[in-house]
Design brief:
The protein folds into two domains: 287 residues, Aminopeptidase; 148 residues, Glucose Oxidase, domain 1 (3-Layer(bba) Sandwich). 35% of the residues lie in helices and 22% in strands. It has 15 helices and 14 strands. Helix 10 crosses helix 13. Bound molecules: zinc ion.
């Protein structure tokens, strides 16, 4: 991994700053008073003719899901391209990449106790085999973390592992892993089939990739409802020997998909880019209205609103709608790789990722010294425009498994809106109930208002703090507890 050239600005704010140094540090911050009229004008524009919800509802009714590689996915790409153009964005382009387009066929799961069989409702996880039929003893693998699997030892070889997607009755401080990481750990230890238990109540089934890198995994993996998971666990706990028979057939082909990109060139510093991205693709069980219609259609509306303003932002704002996120960040990985090869990455000063964001109450940031202070001052400025709807919270937590990850791993500072969409939304994550009825139109308007305001502040900052260098990035990932998941995923770049 090449070191990112440290751009522009390496001034740090020290706690014991002299008055002189303080003056230098203020150079990093935005001149808030000068920005207030602009923020107020944008706030009005964002609320006039807001289109995000209307466009998302249209897409949900007319296109349906937006699975990468499907006909609907291609229609969503074309719709996003058109909507950027209809809004008059001066530059719109598509960035093509290759992706494994997996689509579900049939799945059957039966559990037997030697005397009879129970048929269970199940959905296949994505990137599972094109054809599989496994008959294996069923074992309770708890939360599927390394300690749970160690407890089963050799028994796991050739077995069907029952694994929670969430963390249930975990030891204090335990950190959950992504389902694809749990699948990798269990397969490495010889599991022949994976039966994931969803934790949302109400017989909700969840899909999502079982593969870390988008390639098909060798064993079948399916998800069952929490109610059925409890039933099986109770029987296993009484010492009953159960056998699971999991069969599935799916389709897969390599296809071309497209990230859709638009930008507004900066008026004063066009060479420097503030990127605002989010994934347009969704799973196929519903229309992906919250994951991630919320984020992607808010970005389309944000582009409309910023472009409708009389003055251009001072730095370039680039809007990117990624495809292939759900299959393993395929579109964002491809774009970062291209930017790395062409040197474009040095121009991208930060990446703001909207994935299931709505009604932001602040921002999270992962960047070296200077970024948190900059975000703090931006949040304070946004609160001068609207204190009632925006709490101005700041988090420095870093997480994985969305399109900011490839940028972060390349050293680019990442920012994300802090959202709390409520249990009714999170319970439908990746499920057949992720539909337009879950979407609050105002939550999308507030995405536009507050992410837009942040973008204007970042675009106007006299200078921006640098990218991570390798040592800073490594330390930050370790401090955030991300070394283990990155190692499991083969994404840890250090020995
Ligand atoms: Zn998502």
């Amino acid at each position: 991994m090449p070191i990112i050239p440290a751009p522009l600005q390496s001034i740090r704010c020290l706690p014991l700053a002299s008055l002189l140094l303080l003056a230098v540090c203020q150079h990093l911050a935005v001149d808030v008073r000068a920005q207030i009229p602009l923020l107020k004008a944008f706030n009005r524009t964002a609320q006039t003719d807001a289109m995000g919800y209307r466009w998302l509802r249209w897409s949900s009714e007319r296109i349906g899901h937006r699975l990468t590689g499907s006909a609907q996915g291609a229609m969503a790409e074309a719709a996003a391209d058109s909507l950027f153009r209809v809004s008059g964005l001066p530059q719109v382009m598509r960035f093509p990449f290759r992706a494994q387009a997996w689509s579900r066929g049939t799945v059957q799961l039966t559990v037997g106790d030697g005397e009879g069989f129970l048929h269970l409702q199940a959905v296949a996880l994505a990137n599972t085999p094109l054809s599989a039929a496994v008959d294996a003893p069923l074992l309770d693998a708890g939360n599927g973390l390394p300690a749970d699997l160690d407890r089963l030892g050799e028994q796991l070889k050739g077995a069907a592992a029952l694994v929670n997607i969430g963390l249930v009755a975990a030891t204090e401080g335990a950190r959950n892993l992504h389902r694809s990481e749990k699948a990798k750990l269990a397969m490495d230890r010889g599991a022949a089939a994976l039966i994931f238990v969803n934790q949302a109540e109400g017989r909700v089934l969840l899909t999502g990739t079982a593969s870390i890198d988008g390639a098909l995994i060798p064993v079948p993996a399916a998800c069952i409802a929490t109610e059925d998971g409890s039933l099986l666990r109770n029987r296993l706990a009484t010492g009953q020997a159960l056998t699971a028979r999991l069969g599935m057939s799916n389709q897969s082909a390599m296809v071309e998909a497209n990230n859709v990109i638009a930008e507004i060139p900066g008026s004063r510093m066009p060479q420097e880019v503030i990127m605002i991205g989010g994934h347009l693709d969704s799973w196929d069980l519903a229309t992906g209205a919250t994951d991630n219609g919320l984020g992607s259609f808010s970005i389309l509306d944000l582009a409309r609103a910023m472009n409708a303003m009389p003055n251009r932002p001072e730095r370039t704002i680039r809007f990117v709608l990624f495809m292939g996120e759900e299959q393993g960040l395929l579109g964002s990985r491809a774009l970062v790789e291209h930017y790395r090869e062409t040197g474009e990455l040095a121009r991208v000063k930060c990446m703001i990722n909207l994935d299931m964001s709505g009604n932001p109450q602040g921002f999270g940031v992962g960047g070296p010294d200077g970024w948190a202070g900059l975000l703090r001052s931006a949040c304070d400025s946004i609160r001068t425009v609207d204190t009632a709807a925006f709490a101005g919270r700041l988090s420095e937590e870093v997480w994985l498994h969305s399109d900011h990850q490839p940028f972060l791993m390349a050293g680019v500072p990442v920012i994300y809106p802090l959202s709390d969409l409520g249990k009714h939304v999170y319970g439908c994550y990746h499920s057949s109930c992720d539909d337009i009825h879950l979407v609050d139109p105002q939550a999308m308007v507030n995405n536009v208002r507050f992410v837009g305001a942040l973008a204007y502040m970042l675009a106007a900052a006299p200078s921006l703090p640098p990218h991570f260098n390798q040592a800073q990035l490594k330390q930050r990932l370790i401090d955030s507890g991300l070394e283990q998941p990155l190692r499991i995923g083969g994404d840890w770049p250090w020995p």
